[in-house]
Amino acid sequence: MFAGLSRVAAQTARLQGGQRRLYNTYKTNSIRLSTPSEAVSFIKPGDRVFIHGICSFPQELVDALAARHHSLWDVEICHLHIAGEPSYLNGQAAESFRVNNLFIGKKLRNAVNAGLADYVPIFLSEIPALFSSGRLPLNAALISVSPPDAHGFCSLGPSVDVALSAVRHADLVIAQVNKKLPRTHGAGLIHMDNINYYTEVDTAIHEMPSEPLSEAEMAVGRNLAPLIENGSTLQLGIGAVPQALCAFLENHSHLGIHTELISDSILPLIESGVIDNSRKVIFPGQVVASFLQGTKKLWDYVDDNPMVALMPSEYVNDVKNIQRNPKVVAINSAIEIDLTGQICADSVGTRFISGIGGQLDFERGASLSPGGKPVIAMLSTTKTGESRINTHLKRGSGVVTTRAHVHWVVTEYGAVNLFGLNVRQRAEKLISIAHPDHREHLLKEARDRLHLGHFHHQVNVEAILEGRA
Q: Is 260 a catalytic residue?
């Protein structure tokens, strides 16, 4: 354990570019301002402003910035998905601000698709380089931090991800110091000397509770569980389906976590000892993630807990780091898959609903890990009963994960491994785990498009229709 903690300290110092300074007494050159309005008064027309995302969204600073809309124009706002309220898009404020989403969440989905906000398709692991290279220079960063410790260090709390790079490269760093923000361990430590202006707040942290799981989602989790060997290292992507797996791992042992995000769902497995991180190579004995997405129960667990190390996205999502862990099982979801294995994960046709994220990084990293398994887990149909397994992706859909990267695909009707299969064999396997109501139609279309049954290719129609292919 202590060796792992020393690695965290060393990695933190490296990622902060040698700016890690220790003081025996707390001393700072930053300027304390009494209100959020004063703190954001330094934002100018035409500025590009990064806003701390997900559950670290600095709501008080954001609301104060939106309230200044009458004196601002052409201000670009950049962030990941957010748990708070984007008040800069309300009413007349929307005329002064333009949001450039680096990942789309529910709060901005309609604005993006109405042309009122923009979206940058990019790997989460490459966003920090946008800031560090000057490709997307930042005039200011609005962040949430925990109160400083005796040495003057604050924590970025639940969201280190791309925020660490934003803080390091923004011209101006403005923080709301929140007494309720959990102090997380890892690389997300910011000294007060690196904050230009701050204001103090005492407000509840945004929460993103998981929605109740459906029977079909639980069935997907049940089908996933046999793919997890003892000693595996897990990556759980965004969505209900990857989280459903956790309910079926109580009899496993020596599991580890190296993932983009963690939610409340892993806490019972940590408390029971199923997750002990003992077989990992990267930070053995510790859970590694880049951001948290959950409730107060999760905030309380991670607060000042060295067993959880939050690291920046360029580290966590680096394929070279992912593949070093043994038996990495990367579990990500999809909106749609075609019969050759192409994955759409950020749009429904031409409608953007999500982002690129880290799916491809982890799918590739898992495939290179000794004993690893890249997995796409999904429901077989939409809420309206449309098949998610189709002959073609919908018009306008983007391919996030290529057919060459896809190995395992799991639905509530089973699990199939596409690795090494030709396109006709893939079609048979995927049809066998589609919803039974759609299999016959898919089989007919596959015969036309992929020539199933031609060139002496034998098709066991009965086995496909019954899900036994």
A: yes
